[in-house]
Structures are given as structure tokens and as C-alpha cells.
Amino acid sequence: MDQLVVRGGRRLEGSVSIAGAKNAALPQIAAALLSDRPVTLSNLPRVSDVASMLDLVAGYGVHVEAIGAHQARLDPGSAQNGAAHYELVRRMRASVLVLGPLLARFGEARVSLPGGCAIGARPIDLHVKALAALGAQVDMEGGYVVASARGGLRGARIVLQNPSVGATETALMAATRARGETEILNAAREPEVADLCALLLAMGARIEGAGTHRILVQGDQPWRAASHEIIPDRVEAGTYGIAAAITGGRLELEGARLEHMASVCQVLESVGARIWPGDRGLMVERAGALKAADITTEPYPGFPTDLQAQFMALMAIAEGASMIRETVFENRFMHVPELARLGVDVTLQGTTAFVRGGRRLKGAPVMATDLRASVCLLLAGLAAEGETVVGRVYHLDRGYEALDRKLVRCGADIERVGA
Q1: Which residues are catalytic?
Q2: Residues 212, 141: contact at Cβ < 8 Å?
Q3: Theoretical Cys-Cys bridge with 81: which of 106, 141, 206, 403, CB 3.0 to 4.6 Å?
Q4: Which residue range forms the structural domain that includes residue 115?
Q5: What is the pLDDT of residue 413?
Q6: What is the pLDDT of residue 90?
Q7: Domain-terminating residue out of 229, 247, 280
Q8: 234-246 and 371-383 are packed helices; what angle lies between their axes, rounded to 10 degrees?
Q9: Is the domain of 76 the same as that of 217?
């Protein structure tokens, strides 16, 4: 099992290429199961979650052809219904996204309850309720979600209890094959959802309201072959922006889109970073001292939960006290004890963390507990004195493409070693 050895105190400077968004790629790979026409996806990130999702749809008979490093052609013409092996599904929670397409296309689906990061219960009840609203019968049997709609799905009004990204995507994909019109209310507004809509439109679906809380889908349209380029990863871009700030550096984020990162950029500027658009993306620089700030994680367009841990590492060295409130996942502070090993002064009270900044961090062995926690520890290690050894970096590889190599090219001292 690999570890990352981080020797802190280096200022980062240079350019990093932002990969395609993992959280956009995963539902789009699942969406290929909806039709029998080929789908070509470009700007696919080379991360283990994407590889697992490609393996998952291949297990249903989708022919996956790699075209270069970041492009794949998915031909679902010979796809068949079945039950994915648990060894594939347990790797990531996003595997539940095949449930809607399989049910919509074949009239039934059997998908193992998913695994992934241990950052909270994250139940799939909203997915189930969305499918039930479309006329499906959904049950749990022996660790599997079993759904059927023998007479086909029917368009309906779906009111989501909260704007869940995954449930919105499940409802969207299933609705494209339902008879009649489907209205999805309180839909997630994330750019990744809008990007899924863009792919579905290219495949032949009729969708209105992408990027809003109300999405209309006219179902049962003829399918066609499609090609689509996945949007850049706003979480990866935000992570590198924090890396520039935490090291007092300057980075060009090639491909980053300001319109997807307004809340993140606003917070980074409030703590002392300078951000401006460049010819190829965004520039992020920190020239002066860092100031503490309070944040609350919220659904888009609010501050993303996927950057909460990284922001905590930044606040550890900022002057003053900050309050970080987590409202999306109930157990997303598992990185706190590991940060404390580096000298971070943080106190937890329920879903709120209080960070007293201005501390001198010192390197220590730490253990990643989930994807974002792993990169949070790496960022703290960049600012710490001495050597930090981050274990379980397979979490990191699930969502970041060559992050250690990209940082090394910008001046970081990081070595990947086998445990």
C-alpha cells in the first residue's frame, strides 16, 4: 500500500492542468446504459473511481474502448441486465447510479448496496423514492436494491426532500425513458448535473431547466450516438488554489472555470489570496498573511463539502479563529484527529469545527480516512516543518489524477513509496 512522504516548507509556483470532473464522469458512464447507441466521452480523468465505473458497466456488457489517455468509447449495443459483482460495487457509492438506467432500459435492475468513503450514512432512499414516483417497485433483498417496472416507467412529478446530486441524476436518467413528462423539483444545481443533462441532450433526450431547481424531461425520445467533453473538476481546481495559498505560492490552474467556483474564490480572496482569470484558466496567488474566516458547507452554489477538509488545513495556519460548519454529511470530520497529530488546534462541537490558527505545524505520520481527508493531510504536510507521511493514499487516487506528480512539478517535495 503506497504512502506519500511530504517534506514541507516549499513555495509552490507553476502551472497545473485541471483534469475532467470525476463527479461528472461517473454518472455519464452510467448513462451509456440507457440506449443501444455508442457514447464517446472525452476529458475523462485517470482516477481509480472512473476505472471502477468503466469496469462496472463493462460487467453489464458495454464494450469499453480506450481512445488515448482521457477518452473512451462506450458501446452499449450488447448490454444485458444482471447483477454487478459486489467486489466492483463496494469500491464506490456512485455505483448506485447504474440503477436508474438499468431499470429504465430493461424494466428491472438488481444492484448491490454501494460502498465508498466512510463519511456518513448517505442513504439511497431519495433514489428509491424518485424511482417509485416513476412507477417502479423497489425492495431491498440480501444487500441488493431490486427494482422492477414491468409495464415501463411513467412520467411524474418528483419532489426531492433535499437537492441531492445523486438522486437528481438517478431521476434524470430514468425519466429519459419514461412515458410522458417528468418534473423534478428541488433538483440539484451542481455543474456536474448540468453536464449530465448536456450529455443526455446529445444522446437525444429532451430536457429543460438544467442548472435550476426545476427540471423538465420529455421521456421516451429516439436515441442517437453522442460525443461529449466532460467539464473540468472544480474540486480539484479548488484544492490546488488552497495549495497555492497554504504555501504562499502562485499557481496557474489550467482549464479551471470561474463560473463554477464563485463561492470558493470568494472565500479564498477573503482569507488573503488573489484570484484572477488568465488566458488558460485561473491564477491564484498569496502574497501576504492569511486571515481566518468562517464557512458553512452547502449545496451548490454554496461552499462545497468536498473542499471543507482542505479549507480546514488552510485555516490551521491563518491568523485568528475560524468556524467550519458541515451541513451536507454528518460524519465528515474524521480528518480532525489526524490533523491534530500535525499540531492543528481544532475543537469539534457536533457538526461544527472551531480552528485556532497561527500554529506552527510539524510533520508526523498520518492516516487518510477518505478521499478529501487524504488531500487535506497532504496540504497540511506542505505547510508543516519536517516530514509528513500520509498513509492509505489509495483514497487520494480515487479522485485526483497524478496529484503528487503535479505538485512536484510546481516545487513540492513529495515522494511516493511502497509501505
Answers
A1: 117
A2: no
A3: 106
A4: 22-229
A5: 98
A6: 66
A7: 229
A8: 20
A9: yes
Q: Are 118 and 97 in contact (CB under 8 A)?
A: no
Given this model, what pLDDT does residue 195 score?
98
| Model pLDDT, residue 116 | 44
Query: Which of 409, 18, 8 lies closest to 248, judged by CA?
Result: 8
Low-confidence residues of the chain, pLDDT below 50? 116-122
88 and 215 assigned to the same domain: yes
Q: Quick one: pLDDT at residue 315? A: 98
CB 331 within 8 A of CB 309: no
Q: How far apart are CA 312 and CA 353, in angstroms?
A: 9
Annotated binding site for UDP-N-acetyl-alpha-D-glucosamine: 93, 122-126, 306, 328
CATH number at residue 394: 3.65.10.10
Determine the residue type at 45: P
Cα–Cα distance between 6 and 190 in angstroms, integer?
33
Dihedral, CA atoms, 353, 356, 362, 366, nearest 10 degrees? 0
Residues 264 and 200 both lie in one domain:
no
* H or E element at residue 317: none
User: Is there a single domain that holds both residue 276 and residue 143?
Assistant: no
Q: Are 191 and 300 in contact (CB under 8 A)?
A: yes
Nearest 5°: the CA angle 43, 244, 277 is: 60
Tell me the pLDDT tens digit for each residue of 260-303: 999 999 999 999 999 999 999 999 999 899 999 999 999 999 99
- Pick the last residue of a domain from 229, 245, 272: 229
pLDDT at res. 117: 41
CA Rg, the chain, in Å?
Answer: 21
Domain count for the chain: 2
Alpha carbon 402 to chain centroid, angstroms: 16
Q: What residue type is assigned to position 227 of the chain? A: S
Interatomic CA distance for residues 333 and 331, integer angstroms: 6
Residues 208 and 239 in one domain: no
Question: 208 and 259 share a domain?
Answer: no
Query: Binding site, residues?
Result: 22-23, 93, 122-126, 306, 328
Query: At residue 289, what is the residue type?
Result: A
Q: In terms of domains, do 190 and 289 share one?
A: no
Percentages (nearest 5) of helix, strand, coil residues in the chain: 35, 30, 35
Annotated binding site for phosphoenolpyruvate: 22-23
Tell me if residue 363 falls in helix, strand or coil: coil
**Pairing relation of β-strands 157-159 and 181-185?**
parallel
pLDDT value of residue 91: 64
**266 and 214 part of one domain:** no
Residue 42 burial by CB count (10 A; 0-12/13-18/19+): exposed, middle or buried? middle
